[in-house]
Design goal:
The chain has two helices and nine strands; from the N terminus they run ααβββββββββ. With 132 residues, it is mainly beta. Strands 3-4-8-7-6-5 form a six-stranded antiparallel sheet. Strands 2-1-9 form a three-stranded antiparallel sheet, with no helix packed on it.
């Protein structure tokens, strides 16, 4: 999905644009999907591509990773792209929507996850589609 930055600015809220297109981070505990417990799919807020499933969402207990929606795995192997991110003097792995190239969050190690993976995702970068 290719849009100009002006088209993205029209499509997204100011906060979504800052996170999804400028690789920002929303404040912890501010996202509307942090406590979402329903059954369904979490899709990219920019393009609607499924990126996470509700059965992989969990509540992290690891300090520094609490306050954003946490997932142990992606919807499928082609849902996201993982990219080295060495910004701000840190070594992290950025999580990007493979369909539209939007920034979703970062991948960390987390012992409180079922598989040791913690997809720490900005709530405003997602929409929730409940199962019918």
């Amino acid at each position: 999905m290719q849009l100009s930055e002006d088209e993205w600015k029209q499509k997204l809220t100011k906060e979504q644009y800052q996170v999804l297109r400028e690789k920002g981070t929303e404040p912890p505990f501010s996202g509307t999907l942090l406590n979402e417990k329903g059954s369904g799919d979490f899709v990219c807020a920019a393009c609607g591509a499924p990126v996470f499933k509700s059965d992989t969402k969990y509540d992290s207990t690891t300090p520094g990773l609490i306050g954003w929606p946490s997932f142990s795995d992606v919807a499928d192997g082609d849902a996201v792209e993982l990219v080295d991110d060495n910004s701000f003097g840190m070594q992290r792995t950025e999580v990007i929507c493979k369909n539209c190239g939007s920034h979703l969050g970062h991948l960390f190690e987390d012992e409180s996850s079922s598989n040791g993976k913690h997809y720490c995702i900005n709530s405003c970068s997602l929409d929730f589609k409940a199962k019918k």
